[in-house]
Amino acid sequence: MLLFNHHSWPLLDPHTFQNLLKACISQRNLLAGKALHALFFKSHNTNHDISTYLSNHFTILYSKCGTLRNARSAFDLTHHPNVFSYNAIINAYAKHALTHIARQLFDQIPQPDLVSYNTLISAYGERGDAVEALGLLREVREKCLAIDGFTLSGVIDACSGRGVGLIRQLHCFVVMGGFDSYASVNNAILTSYSKEGFLGEARQVFHEMGYCGRDEVSWNSMIVACGQHREGSEALALFCEMVRMGLEVDMFTMASVLTAFTSLKDLAGGMQFHAKMIKSGFHRNSHVGSGLIDLYSKCAGSMLECRKVFEEITAPDLVLWNTMISGYTQNEDLSEDALCCFRKMQHVGFRPDDCSFVCVVSACSNLSPSVGNQVHALAIKSDILYNHVSVNNALVAMYSKCGNLQDARKIFDTMPEHNTVSLNSMIAGYAQHGLEAESLRLFELMLQKDIAPNNITFIAVLSACAHTGKVKEGQKYFSMMKEKFGLEPEAEHYSCMIDLLGRAGKLSEAQRIIETMPFNPGSTEWAALLGACKKHGNVELAVKAAVEFIRIEPYSATPYVVLSSMYASAGRWEEAATLKKLMRERGVKKTPGCSWIEIDKKVHVFVAEDTSHPMIRKIHEYMGEMLKKMKQAGYVPDIRWALMKDEEAVTAEEKERKLLYHSEKLAVAFGLICTKEGVPILVVKNLRICGDCHNAIKIISAISGREITIRDTHRFHCFKEGQCSCRDYW
DNA sequence: GTAGGGTTAG
């Protein structure tokens, strides 16, 4: 665009120079801008006004082009920075998530104008800091500056995710102030309603905008809202309408449509759409690519496909990398790959942002605790914890999943502020560890502090009640959900209620829930009922639950295994054998039990009766000795838990020996051998802990004087001085 | 000189 050379500079009059710089700014032409900057230094321009004008505009240029360092030095060289260049540099810091520096600069502006306020509000909006954003809004009003659409969309964005009540208030404010004709404001309101789980309200905003009041962003936002609420066909209908109306369809639209397919788990539809996009070249776009990667990782579980998509992208951006990391994270077996991807991303020059950390930290929940510590250290070094509640939340969840409730609480107590997710993570952490009193106390605190609970909060609260048999409380919270907070219970809440009632022995009430719930019950609900039947020995209801379970998930071993062991316990051997035969014929395979433990940053894996570990002889010897002591302390092996192949005729002694070599016992024994007196032990298991192991480890904890924690697929069992944190209610 | 639409935690 700029054809000149520096020799022509003396001939370039200041106004032409100004115009050229303006052109650089509007076209974001960094290269030409830098050339102009070099000329500016050589020019020794004596006109003070023009010189000031130009200095200010160089700050704006660099800020817009995203080169923060250049922007800062241009800003520092400006003797009289005007409000324009202040605003530009504040925005640049905000875009780099350096809100505290943005704030410092804002405080230096002699007379901040509305744009200054808007810029800072949107910076707080980006990090969801409602308190600061609302404070600034108040200031704007006190100064009698006229609020505009930018102000409000920033404030709404900041308040998004803090409960629908706040959004309703803001919506009211918008209508009263006559801002409901601003597309941007309506778009922000629409999105906030959707994020809070209120699709109806989002839809209403969209409809009230009318065709003339909408812009492309409105359509895209509504498509995303539908996708998030699994209204995929509505999303697609909107997309078709957009095309029919001749509206511009861009990368955002494409990405939005993809979220609809993903939420519907409609892989085939998504793939067709992918094919169409290949024809139009959209598939090379990073925005669209992240939608595609999300689709393939969530619906196909195929990271291979994701990698193919990734390789097609012309200019991968940070979001694309984050989506890849998140894809690996969602697949528990690929947590290591998530970590690799995180490293690679940094290697090619991307600085991980809050999202990257959130994804990688949650992958660490499936890895050894020391990896989590390392990533935590990196987060501290990257200075990301101060600014991002989300990363702190992920750390709380990671530490509690890794069995380290103390560190989880430490982070929770030191984080700069709490939001709904923070409370959810901590409440769920306590619930998983069987500390329901702490869980419920925190929930009450949440209500006192006016932090709005959401669907996830209630899952944690209800599961805390279920884990400890607090039926009445559970029922109270279940009805509170809808009555007090307008939250519609989802399938998972019904599962919790079935679990709560079932475990407490109220089987018919649990059955009634499953029969009357407003969805078709899935395998989770039947599994909860089946588990309850096993606990309370109701074979007839168990058969019904198992049949339904198998109908939904024909290849899951759970219903077969549970039901056959129930038959065996009831002495109904023939039926137990028939079931096992059926299982074989149908090719249903039982997942082998497997436990792991980390010693000196190395993970040791044990499979039941596995003899491949180099120290296995020593472990067996140790267990033999331990068994003697255990028996003296009153341990009676519960051979019902020794699941044998039906054709094997086995003696009680053989069964006892098999029990002794269950994976969790081997891992615990290994831990006891390899660590010093008094060091707590953490073992992770891929299935639920077996009843005999539960009993045995209680006794081992007393004999060895150690704290032993087992994390199974349902919860934590923390054994100490002969007792388990679950108080045997599991 | 400033916004709202793609990825993320429980």
Automatic annotation (TrEMBL):
SUPFAM superfamilies named among the record's database cross-references: TPR-like
Entry keyword annotation includes Repeat: yes
A Pfam entry, by short name: PPR_2
Domain DYW: 634-730
InterPro entries per UniProt: DYW_dom (IPR032867), E_motif (IPR046848), PPR_At4g14850-like_plant (IPR046960), PPR_rpt (IPR002885), TPR-like_helical_dom_sf (IPR011990)
PPR repeats: 113-147, 215-249, 317-352, 419-453, 556-590
Domain of life: Eukaryota
Statement: the UniProt record of this protein carries the keyword Translocase: no
PANTHER family: PENTATRICOPEPTIDE REPEAT (PPR) SUPERFAMILY PROTEIN, PENTATRICOPEPTIDE REPEAT-CONTAINING PROTEIN
Protein family: Belongs to the PPR family. PCMP-H subfamily.
Name used for this protein in its record: Pentatricopeptide repeat-containing protein
Protein source organism: Stylosanthes scabra
Lineage of producing organism: Eukaryota, Viridiplantae, Streptophyta, Embryophyta, Tracheophyta
